[in-house]
Design goal:
The protein is mainly alpha-helical. 42% of the residues lie in helices and 5% in strands. The protein is built from five helices and two strands.
């Protein structure tokens, strides 16, 4: 019938619509349609810091304490963040990767206030 009327018709399944909404219009789906696809792994910085500080009965060094020293490393990170899309911090456990990463992002955000930062946290889903 649509061909006789010279009308283009495209059939789209509900799964395709759902995936399109979630991938292309996430805030619309979350805020207005109350559809969420959330594993709890992508967190605003303040939530991440709060959760980190409270895990393991506060046996970890708090992340919201003052940042001292490591200026050369911080400057190096800032140089990379200003010219690249991705920076990976690596090193042995306990050397302060998370702490310097948070400090670097805070410095970057102060210089670039239009950016919004999130943390991808390792959690069991």
């Amino acid at each position: 019938m649509h061909r006789k009327k010279k009308v283009n018709l495209e059939l789209i399944g509900i799964d395709t619509i759902a995936l399109d909404i979630m991938s292309k219009y996430y805030s619309l789906a979350r805020d207005f349609l109350e559809i969420s696809l959330d594993t709890g792994q992508i967190l605003p910085f303040d939530v991440f810091i709060s959760e980190y500080n409270n895990k393991a009965n506060q046996l970890s060094t708090p992340l919201d304490n003052l940042f001292f020293h490591r200026k050369l490393e911080l400057d190096s990170i800032q140089t990379i963040l200003n010219s690249k899309n991705l920076l990976i911090l690596s090193g042995a456990a306990g050397v302060g990767k998370t702490k310097i990463g948070i400090e670097a992002i805070n410095v970057f955000k102060n210089e670039n206030p239009s950016y919004i930062s999130y943390v991808i946290a390792k959690k069991r889903c």
